Amino acid sequence: MGVKQIHEVVGRLGTMIEHYSKFTPVSLSLKSLLIFGETAPASKSFDFLKYELPVRFANIIREVQLLPNVLKKSKPIKHICLLYEETFDTLLKYEGCSTHPTSTVSRFTDDIDILLQKHSNVVEVIALGIKEIQNCDSWSEYQELQLQYFLDRFYVSRIGVRTLMNQHSMLYGPTLCNIQSHVGSIDPDCSPLQIAINAYSYSRSLCMQVYGRAPGCDIEVYNCVDKGSASGSFNKIDFCVDATGHPSTKSYLLENQMNCADLSVKGKDVTFCYVPGHLFYIMYELLKNSMRAVIEKHTNDAHLPRLHVFICNANEDIVIKITDFGGGMALNVVEKTFRYNYTTAVHSRNLQPAVLNFEKNHSVNQVTLNDRMTYEVKSEHNDSSSIAGRGHGLPLSRLYARYFGGDLHLYSVEGVGTSALIYLKRQPQDAHELIPLFNHTSRSVYENNSQQRDWVSNSHKTLLEPSITS
């Protein structure tokens, strides 16, 4: 291709990116995704995604283009920008295409699978490059806020497009979801208790491998909704597993688990409509952090204080509280925990190889809950495994919670411990996607070179960080 042709292609692509970035992405609900997956043919999914995906990619590409030069010139951002532009160009091939012949839809599905694979290491690429950028002499505090603002929006956009592409691939691709009750990656009867036990099992196994010991855990489930109006099953559960791994009674919740020793469970199992892979990611990250904190705080103690997990099924929300006695954090540290590349691990660099080795050897990419139910968390744990100890786990967990209208908060008592609260929408019609929108407001964050203070205090830095929900 000659220089003139290259300029023509680049110019055409830039024009189309600007054109599509003017459209507002469609914020879907879990209910609409569920109904669509149960009833719509592949052709309908193609008709929707051939326009929706370019809109979402164009919106986030425009934000990448407005990043400060020190960011845009960095190798990881250059790589991501090129990857996203190539992806946008691939999707443009289907603009105006009809579903006839059917081979068009098949080619689109094949391209979706290829794109999912190409984008699988995006988080790792960015995580590895951020440290280099942050250590630049010219790096300012406001540029740091711009970076945090961008990463929140970029990553939640990534979660959204991967969710849509995974849905299409699992419903209409050559490798269909092997769980009959699932609709693509969505489980209409997702059990937070089952996922909590599974996340504990994996976290405990990792902790035992790295430290040689792990704290036990007590899980309690509360149903605050009338049985007549509640969704899901409410089977009475009351069992414990001793320190050697022997359960007090047989339970389907313990089948095919790695290590559920020193666990007690009480309450009634509840279910709601959700993406199990997203919830597993959140709980696995939080339980790993809690176990590490407890062990590092009580290194010389003979007995480790137990973790406590409370699951509450309420009218509007599913609320999950994870509490540890790992020494807690000061307020200024809590405020930093959701910053990318910030970690409270004492020996985070030394932990990375152990975590990566464990998650690779134990196939965390596909987690088996029991003989009746497995779920894919491949895309989520590509994010988790590849960035172990690099300070992405908590901010990404919060984005997974926020993606369908929930949230994640940390509350800590310095010297005592920390509680993490996960809020999730109980009703699928209330669980709408959170999608970044490129407009004048977001543009202004990148175009301003500084932010003037509007509060004064000698004890705190007073720059107000742009919020993902602004």
TrEMBL record:
Xref: SUPFAM superfamilies: alpha-ketoacid dehydrogenase kinase, N-terminal domain, ATPase domain of HSP90 chaperone/DNA topoisomerase II/histidine kinase
Keyword Cytoplasm: no
Catalysed reactions, semicolon-separated: L-seryl-[pyruvate dehydrogenase E1 alpha subunit] + ATP = O-phospho-L-seryl-[pyruvate dehydrogenase E1 alpha subunit] + ADP + H(+)
GO cellular component: mitochondrial matrix
Cellular localisation: Mitochondrion matrix
Entry's EC annotation: 2.7.11.-
GO molecular function, one term: ATP binding
Record keywords, A-Z: ATP-binding, Kinase, Mitochondrion, Nucleotide-binding, Pyruvate, Transferase
Ranges of residues in domain Histidine kinase/HSP90-like ATPase: 274-428
GO BP terms in the entry: regulation of glucose metabolic process
Family per similarity comment: Belongs to the PDK/BCKDK protein kinase family.
Protein name (Swiss-Prot/TrEMBL): Protein-serine/threonine kinase
Species of the source: Schistosoma japonicum
